[in-house]
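Sanity check

After download, print the first record. It should look like this:
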Amino acid sequence: MKLPNSCLLFSTMILTSGAALAQAPSPAFPAKPIVWILPSLPGGSGDVYVRLYTQVITANTGWKFVMDYKPGAGAIIGTAYVAKAAPDGYTLLLAASTFTSTPLMQPDLPYDTVNSFAPISLLGNQTNALLVSAKFPAKNLKEYVAYAKANPGKLNFANNGVGGYAHLVSAALHHQMGITSTYINYKAGPQILAALMSGEADATITGIAGYMPQVKTGKLRLIGLAGIKRAPNLPDLPTLSEQGATGFDYAGWFGVLAPARTPVPIIRALNAEIVKATKDPELLEKLSPVTIVTSSTPEEFSELIVRQIARWQQLVKETNLRLTE
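Expected structure tokens:
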């Protein structure tokens, strides 16, 4: 998707113009269950987020929620469904950070990533990290870079597909550090895990929750976090930024969006309940091992989306990154 010239105005316009473009909300909102669309199969990490957040919000307000799974086409099917839904607050989208990179892979999307949605709030930043096989000699970023420079073409990096999170973020890291790698594509996390355990692949960048048992037994090694902040549950694990990749901030995220032109009071009401839910002790306890629980204003989330789309476009331009098999 070509970033429209007007997108930089989006984050400031969306909430001021929304009320004028949409029908005024009912004072009884919500008068019926709110449908939360997950553009993925049941059982994924998105399930955990939505179930915990809706349980807390229901306990606090009595609001009812329904989860509706619409997987397929790399989340495009479910995302397009929400883009075309009525802007009345009764259809929400769980979006992941790949929401902003999908336009690179699919320039002819059936929706506009910026203008078809009204961001509500972030829900959490995933604990993503550079992870290496125990057979790989590096124990920190300095040693990782030194190995790659001393062994051109021998650093085998496991990807979750061309244009996926690991591919894009590793390309950003390797470009910043002046190194290259050989990419090996796998279909799913279990395949990446097996490749790292066997030494077929040397490294990957991924959410680490599913890999922690192997980390704890010494079969895999954490090098550093991909976000700018340390994880509360791993206080001794430094970020990659701290280790020399200054400013490197590619934490994955989950967030919630509504269709564009959803009335501002409804956006504000949903945001307020999400912000309140992030302070719930049970939610924090259950999500902390896999994420950094957070929230945002709608404006902050809007700005993040615009900023990340531009960043991915710049990365592809600077690195001539190949986004096809």
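If your output differs, re-run the checksum step. Summary of this record's structure: The two ends are 19 Å apart (CA to CA).
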